[in-house]
Amino acid sequence: MNWYALFVHTGSEEVIRKYLHMYLGTSIRVLVPKRKVPEKKSGIFEACTKKVFPGYVLIQVNMTAETYHLICSIPHIIKMLGTNASCTPIPDHEMTTLLNLINPEDIIDYSTVYMENTKVVVLDGPLMGHEGIIKKIDRHTRRAKIWLHLTGNDKPRLVDLGVEILYAKQEK
């Protein structure tokens, strides 16, 4: 079974998930990855959940012509990503990175990072062992920017993830 990306109307990702399970049952795995990020409201940081790829639903299915036409007939699905003639599977190494980051509820949770000058060490959380994909850490918004691929043909996307930052103690 391969992973595929569906381009859907933004905001209808959860409706598409229900339709896919209704039409295909247990023969499909549907993934709408979300991320937990801090947002400042009234001067206080609160955890907020947002979609990693708004307008996309990722599916793992054994694709046949019948399955393809059934999926394309579901309302709110614009198209399957790939060429006009066929859909292109997402490479396994790209999905492995994403699957390693999400928890069983399809959410990328906070990671705890330790910062000393420009050195970043991930102590805990989904980014542990994935320091190489961290592009930047914004101390003010408490977010890490990472590169994630959606399909082999697309350029990587810069995605914000929430982090808890620990600093080195200043010696006096």
TrEMBL record:
GO terms for biological process: DNA-templated transcription termination; transcription antitermination. SMART domains: NGN. It comes from the Bacteria. CDD domains: NGN. Pfam families: KOW, NusG. InterPro entries: KOW (IPR005824), NGN-like_dom (IPR006645), NGN_dom_sf (IPR036735), NusG-like (IPR043425), Rib_uL2_dom2 (IPR014722), Transcription_antiterm_LoaP (IPR047663), Transcrpt_antiterm_NusG (IPR001062), Translation_prot_SH3-like_sf (IPR008991). Gene3D superfamilies: 2.30.30.30, NusG, N-terminal domain (3.30.70.940). Keywords: Transcription, Transcription antitermination, Transcription regulation, Transcription termination. Residues 1-102 form the NusG-like N-terminal domain. PANTHER family: KOW MOTIF FAMILY PROTEIN, EXPRESSED, RHO-INTERACTING TRANSCRIPTION TERMINATION FACTOR NUSG. Participates in transcription elongation, termination and antitermination. Belongs to the NusG family. NCBIfam families: antiterm_LoaP (NF033641). This is Transcription termination/antitermination protein NusG. It comes from Paenibacillus amylolyticus.
